[in-house]
Amino acid sequence: GEAAGANNGPLETNVTTLAASATAGNVYISEADDLIIGSVPAIAINRVGLDAGVTVVGGSVLAGVSADDFLKIETVAGGITVNEAVSATNNDLLLDAQAGDIAVNNTVTATAGNASLLASANITQSAAGDVTAGGTLDVEAQGDITMTDGAVSTAGTNLRYLAGNNLVVGSLVGTNVRAEAVAAITMAATE
Predict the structure, then answer these.
(1) What φ, ψ does residue 6 adopt, rounded to 5°?
(2) Mean of the pLDDT values across residues 69-82?
(3) What number of CA atoms fall less than 13 Å from residue 112's CA on the CB side?
(4) How many Å separate Cα 50 from the centre of its chain?
(5) Residue 78 near residue 33 (C-beta atoms within 8 A)
(6) C-alpha closest to that of 112 among 93, 129, 134
(7) pLDDT per residue as tens digits for the range 1-45
(8) What whole-number distance in Å separates Cα of residue 35 and Cα of residue 180?
(9) Taking a C-beta distance cutoff of 8 angstroms, is the pair 41, 84 a contact?
(10) What value does the mean pLDDT of the chain take?
């Protein structure tokens, strides 16, 4: 693979759960298989000193993925499950499951940029999985897109949901909203 940051290439991972934070930059991840965006527990490390001493350095829990600028995550051979918040503050956001589903169980936000959620299979969006983009929002699945009642997707400008099969809609908000499906488009059942 390519070194992280070289030629703007992604960090190649093969992990189960990912949490990451770039407080003044980008997050680019290319995951080999299924990925859960979740929380990673606090870990302590032993810092080795020049005097041969060791100092224990504590850590803190890291939850979700956030970037001050671009945030792009792809899975090459699997899906993406969003269990903790995903946010790009000042630029665009991409979640791309090239061989699987995307399950949005927590917020996905591109505060000042565009957002794209792309899945080779299905996309599900729970009531807690609101998706927001300051610019355009593009959600596309080759299979079904299913929003649970209470799920909201909001775009500052244009919003498009495109399903290769069925589309079940919760709430779509944007300047121009386009909902397309090869099969049926229905409203999410109220609970």
Answers:
(1) -75, 125
(2) 98
(3) 7
(4) 41
(5) yes
(6) 134
(7) 444 554 668 999 999 999 999 999 999 999 999 999 999 999 899
(8) 27
(9) no
(10) 95
